Amino acid sequence: MGKYSLNEFIKTTQQDDYENEYFELETERVLEVNLDGEVWSKMGAMISYIGDIKFERERVLEHGLSKMFKKALTGEGTQLMKAKGKGRLYLADQGKKVTIFDLKGESICVNGNDLLAFEPSINWDIQLMRKMAGIMSGGLFNVTLQGSGKVAITTHFEPLTLLVKPGETVYTDPHATVAWSGNLTPEFKTDISFRTFIGRGSGESIQMAFSGEGFVIIQPYEEVYLSNES
Known about the structure:
By secondary structure, the chain is mainly β. The chain has helices at 6-13, 65-74, 192-198; strands spanning 23-27, 30-42, 46-57, 80-91, 97-111, 115-118, 123-128, 141-155, 160-164, 170-172, 177-181, 187-191, 205-210, 214-218. InterPro entries: AIM24 (IPR002838), AIM24_sf (IPR036983), Trp_RNA-bd_attenuator-like_dom (IPR016031).
């Protein structure tokens, strides 16, 4: 069999039928969900499925009146989709790298644009960062996830985790910040000196400041969030 033959390509890239975890990394950029029930995912993340699976768009009051108002307030563009049934579901988001967390009663805050999928057993809530609204394009919001079950997030390229230690504040670019431990509450800092350095017309530099004890996940990419005008 030739190195570049079609059969060799198929052998190298075909799906793995022997992995049966609920969430599996089929490739580093494709999430496989071995579905037997329900799963929540980012709208539009489905790229393929095998079996008897039905898809439902998140209804207006699907998660209660409070979350509906928060979603309307943030103007965020990420909508949720429920997949129900039995089969194998493949999810991806613009070629971004997928990371799976198996929460055991812990909590994590994820930038709404970077949340790919989570089990129905996970409790979640939307948190609007009000100080950022109107400063960044579309503002900035995050989803707090807590409980026991699988969560999948996405990053542009390889993520880096920074440890937050008492007495050592960690500053990050909001556009490059993906997630952080649920016990941390970021503050926001405007760096006027940086604005002066790069010129008056370029705007102020906004930074997220994490203090206490926990972790922050960043990516080597500045992602611009656009509000949902529809």
